[in-house]
Specification:
The chain contains 8 helices and 12 strands. With 232 residues, the protein is of the alpha/beta class. It has 2 domains: 123 residues, Response regulator (Rossmann fold); 96 residues, Winged helix-like DNA-binding domain superfamily/Winged helix DNA-binding domain (Arc Repressor Mutant, subunit A). The strands form 3 sheets. A 5-stranded parallel beta sheet has the order 2-1-3-4-5, sandwiched between helices. Strands 6-7-8-9 form a 4-stranded antiparallel beta sheet, with no helix packed on it. α2 packs parallel to α3.
Length: 232
Amino acid sequence: MKEKILIIEDEEDLVKGLKLNLADEGYEVGWASNGEDGLRKALEGAHDLIILDIMLPKMNGLDICRELRQKNISIPIIMLTAKGEEIDKVVGLEIGADDYMTKPFSIRELLARIKAHLRREKREEKSEGKKVPKIYRFGDVKIDFAHFKVRHKGKELDLTSLEAEILKYFISHQGEVVTRRALLDKIWGYEKYPTTRTIDNHILKLRKKIEGDPSHPKSILSVYGEGYRFVG
C-alpha cells in the first residue's frame, strides 16, 4: 500500500513540483490550498506525513499544527517557512512539528527527510505500539512530555522522568493490560529490577497527579493479579 502524504500549501507552482517528485517516489499525494481545507483533510484522512506551510489563507500552519497535536494526531509534520521566519520555526517545533525546511529548499533534501521520518514511524510502531505525541490530552488532563509537566484542572505539577516514561508506555498501549513484568522490563530494565511494590508506589503517585479521585481511579485502572490498564 502506498504511503500517503498531505501537502497544505497555497503556492501552486511549488505544489506542482512537489506532487510530481513525490509521485515519482511512489507516494500517494493529497493537497489543500488553504488552512481550513488542510485541517479538515488532515483530520478526516489517513495520512502518513504532512508537509505544512506556515503562511496560509484562512488558517495559518502553526494553528493547524497545534490543533492536530491537541487532538493527539501524532503523524510527522514537516513545516515550510519563508526565509527569516526564525521565531515561527521555534514556535512550530515547540507545538509539535517534527521538522522544518526554509524556502527555497532542495527537493532531494526534502525527500530524504520524508523517508527518514517515515522510517522512524515504522520502527516506533513495530517496537512499542502507537507513537505518543509530545503533548497528550485526555479529559481535563494535559501532559507535556517535552517539559515533564502535567496540568490537571488548572493546576500544574512536575513529572519525574520515570513517571513520564510510565505514562508514555501506558498511552502507547491504551486499552491493553500492562503487566508489572512488562513495566519492569521496559521502564526499569533487567539490570535494575525493583520490587512490584515500587511499581505500585509509582502508580499511586501518578494517580495523585492525573486522577480526580486517586482512591477511585478512572484513567489508570488496576487489573487484579496482572497489572494495570490505561483507558484515558
